[in-house]
Structures are given as C-alpha cells and as structure tokens.
Amino acid sequence: MNTSPDEYLLPGGGASINALPKISLHDHLDGGLRPATIVELADSAGVDLPTTDAASLGSWFVRQANSGSLVEYLKTFDVTTAVMQTREGLVRVAREFVEDLARDGVIYGEVRWAPEQHLTRGLTLDQAVEAVQEGLDAGVEHVGQAGHDIRIGQLVTAMRHANHSLEIAELAVRHRGNGVVGFDIAGAELGFPARNHVAAFDYLAHEFMPVTVHAGEADGLESIRGALFDGRALRLGHGVRLAEDVKIGRADGDNTFVTLGPLAQWVRDREIALELSPSSNLQTGAIAAWGKDLLDHPFDLLYQLGFRVTVNTDNRLMSNTTLSKEMALLSDAFGYDIDDLEVFQLNAAAAAFLPLEEREELADAIVAGFENE
C-alpha cells in the first residue's frame, strides 16, 4: 500500500480529487497502519508476520480481506492490534494516521478504535486513550507545520461481542475534554444486537455523548432498528442494508416507483447519516443481495432518494484505499461530478460530532475548497 496516494481525477480529466477538502467519519485506527510500520513494530514486539516485506504484507492484507465475510475480514485485525499494545506503538500509529489523512486532503477526521483491545502489554484504558491522543496531537502539529490544517477527534469503540460497553462508555465520557468526540460499537454484528448494550447507551444519552453504531453491514434491518432505538445512534456505521427497506416496482410502461419502508423513511426524514464504505462493503459481502460489483452498490439509489450518504474508507490498509480513491471509484461507477462529491462532503460536515458552529465552519471550508477547483 502506497502511503502517498495516487492522483485521482474527475472523469474527463477534471479536478484533482486529492486536492479537494474532505471529511472522514468512518476510519479505523487499527485498519489504517502502514505496512512498513507493522514490520518495524512487529520486530520489536516479537510478533510473527506472514511476511516481513512491506509491499508483500500490504498485498496480504488485501487478499485476506477479500473474503466476502465480515467475520473473516475481521481476522486481519489480529495482526494490526498485536503491534499496538504499547504507548510507543499507539503514539506512532496515531501520528502516521493523521499524516496519511492530511496527505489525502482530509480537513476533519474521526478516528475510531477499541481501547479494550490494546491492554495486553500493561496499558490501562485511560493510558491507551492518552497515548492515541498524544499521537494524534503530534500528527496535527506536524502536518500543520507543512501548511495543512486538520482536526481529528477520537471515537472510542466498544466491542459488541464483549461485555465492557458500559466501562468503555464511561471511558469515552471521561476523555471528552481530551479529544474524544463520540462513541461507537463494532465487531461481529450478527447475533450481537445493540440491545445487549442498553446500559451503556442509557449512560451515554444521560451524558449527551454522540453515538454511532455499526449496523446494516453483516446484519439487516433489525440490526439497524436496534442501533437507532436501543443505541440512539445519530449515525449508522455503514447502514448499507437499509436499502432492503426500499422497494422498487414497475408502473405503466417503463416507469418505476419507489416505496420506502418505515425504517428507511425514518432514517431519511431524520437525516441520519449513512457511513458508507464502498470498497469495504464489497469485501465483506455487505452488498451481496444486490451484486458483487461497485455498480451494484445501493449507494446511488440511496443518494438519489435523498438519504444523507457519506463516503468513507473503513480500513485503508485492508482495502488498499484512500478517501480520494473511494470518491474516484464512485465517480467512475455512477458518473458523479464535482457537485455530487461536494454534496457528500457537506453531508459529512453536517453529521460530524462537533458543535453546530464548528460544523458550519467545516461546511464553509468545503464550499470554499470546491469553488477553487
């Protein structure tokens, strides 16, 4: 995986997508490591790797992730989390994470990660959060010296198959003044509904902490319903299978009609953002009901119907991708132009876990940046 993103242009040789200001809402810290960094950290930590050649290791991650199964896809994280068990490892990974986002034109990013998965070498939950924040701050300072203004917020994540969600929710609230902007639950979705974590969600609601929930990726409408009504989610992590609640029929002649089910209607009318990740959704089989190619992804259907769609990478290492690349792939598949890409970024600005005034500033920066291209 090349940490210097390739240049992506709009169809017809138009504007550089890389140069456009972007917002990243769904990007996992342990899914965005540089292969060379994994090799170096693994050597010092005594972690065995499939290969110690950085380029070959990057290719290995992509092959392993192309399983069509979320469960198999998640196994690749055993390698990345293994080298993120010390303060030094977390600081470095977080700093490089920011540098890579800035190189991709991101001006605001929310990085999600699960502190409970980084305690095997003696760190406490609080120490892990502090280490990541130290790295994020260092990255912001470093890219700022090069003239790139970027802001990063942490999304503290609990694992849905574990029973630590209330403790992690309390951790998130405890660090909301130190870089944490929201809470997430992730991991194996099927069989682990949001209602298992009601105590955590009740606490977060009491503390007015924003919540996003992975839902509608490896499970369907009931999982999304649980994210919204048990989890009180303000955004849906992926949410792609919400399209199962959209019915398309044929009327007279060649005319078609679309009917939204009650769940889809609720999500659209309340402008609940969908954190769609096109390449990842293909890899995990999240769009299997519609096909196996990007052209089959219901992204465009949801966009045309007025849902608040956003573009995300999910895991840049596993998908060998960047935000610029994801936008380019969508443009190629659906013929999007610069105005469409601007809508996606404004959607992300509106959905960011920031105060209203700061979201408006982000939107202004997006508009100004797109006007200059």
Structure characterization notes:
This protein is of the alpha/beta class and 373 residues long. Helices cover 45% and strands 15% of the residues. The chain has helices spanning 35-45, 54-65, 70-74, 77-82, 87-103, 125-145, 165-174, 198-206, 221-229, 262-269, 278-283, 299-304, 316-319, 323-334, 338-351, 356-371; strands at 22-28, 106-113, 151-159, 180-186, 211-215, 235-238, 246-250, 256-260, 273-276, 309-311. The strands form two sheets. The protein has an eight-stranded parallel sheet, with helices on both faces. A two-stranded antiparallel sheet has the order 7-8. Strand 7 (246-250) and strand 8 (256-260) form a beta hairpin. The longest helix is centred in the middle third of the chain and has 21 residues, at 125-145. It is globular, with a radius of gyration of 20 Å. The mean pLDDT is 95.
Brief overview, please?
Residues 21-367 form the Adenosine deaminase domain. With 373 residues, the protein is of the alpha/beta class.
Can you give keywords for this protein?
single chain, 373 residues, alpha/beta, TIM Barrel, eight-stranded parallel beta sheet, two-stranded antiparallel ribbon, 16 helices, 10 strands, 45% helix
Set down the secondary structure blueprint.
Elements: E1 22-28, H1 35-45, H2 54-65, H3 70-74, H4 77-82, H5 87-103, E2 106-113, H6 125-145, E3 151-159, H7 165-174, E4 180-186, H8 198-206, E5 211-215, H9 221-229, E6 235-238, E7 246-250, E8 256-260, H10 262-269, E9 273-276, H11 278-283, H12 299-304, E10 309-311, H13 316-319, H14 323-334, H15 338-351, H16 356-371
Parallel strand pairs: 1-2, 2-3, 3-4, 4-5, 5-6, 6-9, 9-10
Antiparallel strand pairs: 7-8
Helix pairs in contact: 1-2, 5-6, 7-8, 15-16
